[in-house]
What does this fold into?
Amino acid sequence: MKLIECARCGSGELFEEAGYAVCAYCRSRYALQSGEIPSRETVVDLLLDVHVLLQKCETDPTNSYRYASLILDIDPTNQNAMKYLR
Ligand SMILES: [Zn+2]
It folds into this structure.
């Protein structure tokens, strides 16, 4: 597998899962395309990530700031995430 970097957090720790490269650090998913810089998946999948991260804010309040920051990387206007940054 071609070594790639996460476009969101810069981590080089990506593993392959069901045809996608998944960042071990921030869990970004990238479609594997030979010889190309990985591109983000569709908006639908990004919204799914936001949903999962919001749940983590609720269930893991000690790390909610970090999760909220990741949500705002995906969706800078997300009101639900902003309340965790206050
Ligand atoms: Zn990452």
